[in-house]
Automatic annotation (TrEMBL):
SUPFAM superfamilies: alpha/beta-Hydrolases
Protein name per UniProt: AB hydrolase-1 domain-containing protein
PANTHER family from the UniProt entry: 2-SUCCINYL-6-HYDROXY-2,4-CYCLOHEXADIENE-1-CARBOXYLATE SYNTHASE (PTHR43248), TRIPEPTIDYL AMINOPEPTIDASE (PTHR43248:SF29)
Organism: Kutzneria albida DSM 43870
Protein family according to the UniProt entry: Belongs to the peptidase S33 family.
An annotated Gene Ontology molecular function: hydrolase activity
UniProt-listed InterPro entries: AB_hydrolase_1, AB_hydrolase_fold, Serine_prot/Carboxylest_S33
Signal peptide location: 1-23
Domain of life according to the entry: Bacteria
Domain AB hydrolase-1: 76-444
Keywords from the UniProt entry: Hydrolase, Signal
The keyword Membrane is annotated on this UniProt entry: no
Amino acid sequence: MWSALPVAAALLAGLVTAPPAAAARPVFTHPCPGHAEYECGTLAVPMDYHRPWGPKLSITVSRLRATGTAAQRQGVIVYNPGGPGSSGLYRAKNLPAAVRQAYDYIGFDPRGVGASSPISCVDGAQYYAQPAADPNPATGADKTRLQQRAQQFARGCAQRAGAELAHLNTPNTARDVEEIRKALGERQINYYGSSYGTYLGAVYGQLFPGRVRRMVLDSSANADPANVWYQGNLDQDVAFQTRAEQWFGWIARYDGVFHLGTSQQAVYSAYLKARAQLKAGPIGVLGPAELDAVIVNSVYFDTNWVANARALSDYLVSGDSSALVADAKDADPTSAAAENSTAAYTAVSCNDARWPRSWARWDQDNSAYAVKAPIETWANVALNLPCAYWPVTGQRPTRIDGRGLPPILMLQGTLDGATPFEGAVRTHALLPSSHLVTEQGGGSHGLYNRPQVHNSCVDGYATDYFLRGAVPAGDVVCPGHALPVPTLSGPGTRR
């Protein structure tokens, strides 16, 4: 399962220089609105790559030029932050200064997202009105409501997205990345993807292995065709539960600050109490589903642990719901941007694979998983159930074997809830040239040069790889970053 290149190959990888650029077509035509330091432009790509002469989609691309000299430049880094459905236009500030010197940073909104021929499936103000209904079904009628809501969403996508809907999938987004490469005039690209962006990177590498110079896959989604996407969501439910319980245990260690209990189970019970109270009597936009979103936020980034724990404590101990209400308002799923993001997420997910079409299968599997992972299981069903009624037949996921790819660097925390460690290990096995840097005990989602992590060991390997192409001789383990320590007073920092 674990693979490594010999030391000699690792040293040779460090000697690779930037490929010469070919003549580029004009791409960047104006400063990006609201982000004048970036250049923006659009690129027309086939809606259907099997009919390249047919209708086109407009892909918006951004560039932040390298800060170094021409001699220091090593090409471009194309970045995808995840999702699917996330905008990737303005993310370059996550990179360290040395990497920014060497590379133009290329962002883009994937097809269907943001400024790139965006789609819509529902009226967000109505469909996502807060407080949302409790996603955890207590009765058969609740399960019927889940099905009806999913059917409504799938019908809305068919009606609103039109012909574009069938062509929103990961392989086509990978082909769009290849069109971006051609337009830039680069013989090869360097690629950096996090979360779902790692799956997009793996698919791009499978389709265009000779166009990859270097590739960093940060917090890897499971690229095994058997796990894309249905089983992957079930696996995610369990990882979310494990990480949430870690947070509850951390809160218990600081009971003198939060007063929610001195054991993990006591804090868990406090959360369930708050959930029951909000189900019985929501407070403005705050109900049980919005409280669950705070738990999920804590799963993603432990830098939010202090502020989120304090918000829960304020509500239960002091009767002050203002922080939780503010979090619910900040999330605002009713906005056009949020609705578009969810629409694109659903379209790509449903089109990428062949989901079960039987409600009985969904009910049986998720009822079983909800016993061991109750926090997120039914919320994941509510998000993904439209795929059971999808108007487009899902394709077979791209088979990944990594043939022809150069050395790849993977970064992964062992307690990542969003992309479980076991899935990253499976992807590592599918990519023979990959090298895995594991953050032992790390649970934050996305590791490289993130303010949420600050792990110099992980950062050092990734920066060395981008600058010199160096990979470790084998897989390596970095100690986990320090967890936050709360003070007796203060709001904490919410990101």
